[in-house]
C-alpha cells in the first residue's frame, strides 16, 4: 500500500470509527456450521447489531463441521426461534439448509444485502474449502446471487469479540468504498473467504488465493483417542481426525491462504461459486478493501499491518 493510499485509509478509518452507525443499515443473514450457540457467531451477531444493521441468524441446531453444502432432498426439517430472540432461527439440519431457510423463508420478499458465514472455529483454506460447512453457506448464497463472506478464526482463538470487530471493519470498508449507498457490496457470484490468525498475533493483511495447502489434514485412523484436540476427548474407535499436514499435497501456489494464515496474516481470498474468481474481478474487490488495514485496527484493537506481497 503506497503512502497516499495509506493516508486516505487512515482518514477514512477515523471518520468511520467516529460514527455511531454505518452509512446505511444492511440486511444481513448470519449462519455457520458450528451451531447457533457458538460463541463466535453470537459475538458477531451482537457486534453487527451494535453497528446498526438488521441481522437475522439462521444457523444449525448442532455442529455440522465438514458438511460442505450437503443436504437431503424431501426430508422434513424442524425450525424454531430462540426463546430469547425471535431473530435467531435454529434449523435442525445442515449449514446449507440453514442458509436456504434464511434466504427462502426469512428473506423471501427481499434478498439480504449480505450473507456472512462464521466465524468458524478453525481455518478453512486450500482443499478444505470443498469440505467446509462454513463455505457451504457461502456457496448457497453465491448461487442465489447474494454477496457473501465466509470467516474462519484460529481454533484456539479466545477473544470472539476481537474477531467480530475485524469482521465489522471488513463490512464497513466494503460499504464505505462503494460508489453509491445502494451498490452491491460484491460483484454477482463473487464472495470472500477470510481466515484470521489468533488476534493477539496478527502480522498483517494479505490478498491471497485459495491454493491447495491447508494446515489441517484429514486422515482416517483405527483409534481416534490419541488424536483429540487439547481439552477434548475422542472415543477409542475408528474415524477421521486431524493428521500431519506435512504429508499433504501443497501445490506451491504463490500467496496461498493456508501458508499466509500460518505466518500470522489475515488472508482475504476473492472466490466465486467456482472458487478463485477471475483476476479482473479479484483486483476490483481488493481495491475496495484498500482501507481495511486501518479500519481493522481501529475496530478491533488487533494489529493488522499490511503484509509484504513478495516472499
UniProtKB/TrEMBL annotation:
The protein's name: 5'-nucleotidase
Gene Ontology molecular function: any one: metal ion binding
EC number: 3.1.3.5
Family: Belongs to the SurE nucleotidase family.
InterPro entries assigned to the protein according to its UniProt record, in alphabetical order: SurE, SurE-like_Pase/nucleotidase, SurE-like_sf
Pfam (any one): SurE
Keyword terms of this UniProt record: Hydrolase, Metal-binding, Signal
